[in-house]
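User: Second chain of the day. Same drill as before.
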Amino acid sequence: MEPLAARIRPTSLKDYIGQEHLVGKGKPLFEAILKKHIFSFILWGPPGSGKTTLARIYAEALGAEFFELSAVSAGKDDIRQIIEAGSLGRPKVLFLDEIHRFNKAQQDFLLPYVEKGTLTLIGATTENPSFEVIPALLSRARVFVLQELTEKDMRTILKRTKYEVPKEASEWLIGLAQGDARQMLTVLDNAKELYGSITLSALKDTVQSKHLRYDKKGEEHYNTISAYIKSMRAGEADAALYYLARMVDAGEDPKFIARRMVIFASEDIGLAQPTALVVANEVFKAVELIGYPECQINLAHGTAYLTRSKKDRSAYDAYFAALADVKKHGHLPIPLHLRNAPTKLMKGLGYGEGQKWEAGFNHEKGYLPDKLKKQSYLPKRQEE
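Assistant: Same format as last time:
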């Protein structure tokens, strides 16, 4: 039997719930569907906000051939098969779910087909496409931002299931789902299959799943990444690798983990081992290029390296101390002897006075604004 979410999926905008800013009368996707306007676009929004449904409604309105792939498991061969498949004289719409999981090479492969109009691409992502989609592909697709479904939207969807759900159970379920209609319907359907009737206790028993506990917006997500970073900071490689494994096993976006590694390399390791930033950046590039499952090896390599590196937060602390002074004192006047002096008038006013173009030259008047002359942010090096 089809999942409940598929069984009650609307097939037209008339039954579509939410996203009025996109599908309300006169709004961009309403007009595109009404006028059968063919163009590629990306739907950026939280899980379960209606991206797949919207893509299907659009393709149906065009009378297009609809192909659906998940970037988690799909590759170049899958796209090639769609391209080479016999055409029925209709436009081909490719819905690529989780497009942010496609690495750069895969996106580069897809680009010419979108550019030529061989494929009309509808990408769906929960991550900012500015970071996850290559600029060339992004420039050829309009981005529409979907919002989290409201509690009112969720209640309307719940009513459509025709299931008898006590008020206490429905309120708990809506609170659990946090605007994710697919999660709400999955839990509801599983509870019905497992326990026959839907009660609060049946719903609670149903969600005893590692993947539901590890919601990307939920507490477990933040707890795990926090434990991972703290373990690296403490030099505890076993613990760091364990928390890394938990994130990978739960399907965490590898680029999210790699980004945290790049931040950690400067924030926690810093000047103690500058090559850590190089390694972290290379891990990020490897993750972007390779993707799962192989990139988990790169993540493990980087985690072990960063964890074993010496730690020094002085650059991080010094910068934020300087930033605090900027916020406290505003933009203090830059000393005249440090200012640019492109004209005789400026030179006459003392701009750039006493400066010498010599390596290692240190002006006797110093370099900070007068009000901060005695301020020191970064500890002096031992040789100084």
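Strands lie at 41-44, 65-70, 92-97, 120-125, 142-145.

User: Great, on to the next one.
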